[in-house]
Design goal:
The chain has one domain. It has about 260 residues and is mainly alpha-helical. It has eight helices and two strands, in the order αββααααααα. The protein is globular. About 70% of the residues lie in helices and about 0% in strands. It has a two-stranded antiparallel sheet.
Length: about 260
């Protein structure tokens, strides 16, 4: 599948599916497809949960209300077990992260050629549908978490307390301030980087495997049959991966914010 309608080589097919629809150049390049699907899924999440909340009844709940309540209770219990401070923002934030990241990850369940083929028919040359396979998206979310870590660290401990945390730990001696500052700064910066890279790496690898399996279709009946079997097997396994990655991103966010609320 190509923008010109010509058949692609296997290398070209992979490259096509891993290319974002972009505008701009250099640092100011915007990945339109990643922004569209991430914002669209975020709006869908808000609309769906708000609708369920407005229509919630105290009687026998419907299937959708029951499903939403199970998610809310699961996230709420996870936050209570992990977060040791008092902050009414943490549980809603955790719920938003878990559901939103899961929904973005779930786009990987859509067959790799469906949406790109529809986009090509509409004259759009490239279309990546899994926002979390875009490092810009995962890093922007991690950067948002990082800002919250800094904000609550200063709010709870004060500027002096935050500075002391960076300069007087783990070695509580003035002579070790440069070493402490280096170690604590690296630890602090590693939090958003690890959040972003973990989610991106797992989802990017999963998407690439789906693309490689799709190359088996149309070669011959034996490879096509094997491709269908592998696709189904990887699909079932990948459901666990996308759920686990959403949960890990949520829990690490809660853990980091809990650490930020600890006043030593």
């Amino acid at each position: 599948m190509a923008a010109t309608g010509e058949a692609l080589t296997p290398q070209g097919y992979i490259q096509h599916h891993l290319t974002n629809l972009s505008v701009g150049e250099g640092f100011w390049t915007w990945h339109i497809d990643s922004l569209f699907f991430s914002v669209g899924l975020g709006v869908l999440f808000l609309w769906l949960f708000r609708s369920v909340g407005k229509k919630a009844t105290t009687g026998v709940p419907g299937k959708l209300q029951c499903f939403v309540e199970m998610i809310v209770e699961f996230v709420d219990s996870s936050v209570k077990e992990t977060f040791h401070g008092r902050n009414p923002v943490i549980a809603p934030l955790a719920l938003t992260i878990f559901v939103w990241v899961f929904m973005m990850n779930f786009m990987d369940m859509v067959p790799v050629d469906w949406i790109p083929s529809l986009a090509l028919a509409a004259g759009i040359p490239y279309m990546k549908v899994v926002p979390t396979t875009d490092l810009n998206i995962t890093f922007s979310m991690a950067l948002g978490v990082f800002v919250l870590i800094i904000y609550y660290s200063i709010k709870v401990k004060g500027i002096s307390g935050f500075v002391k945390e960076l300069t007087m730990q783990p070695f509580n001696h003035w002579a070790m301030i440069p070493v402490n500052f280096l170690l604590e700064t690296v630890t602090l910066i590693a939090k958003p980087i690890s959040l972003a890279l973990r989610l991106f790496g797992n989802l990017y690898a999963g998407e690439l495997i789906f693309i490689l399996i799709a190359l088996m279709y149309g070669a011959n009946w034996a490879l096509s049959t094997l491709g269908v079997t592998l696709q189904l097997g990887w699909l079932i396994f990948h459901i666990m991966v996308i759920t686990l990655q959403a949960f890990i991103f949520m829990m690490l966010t809660v853990v980091y914010l809990s650490m930020a609320h600890e006043d030593h």
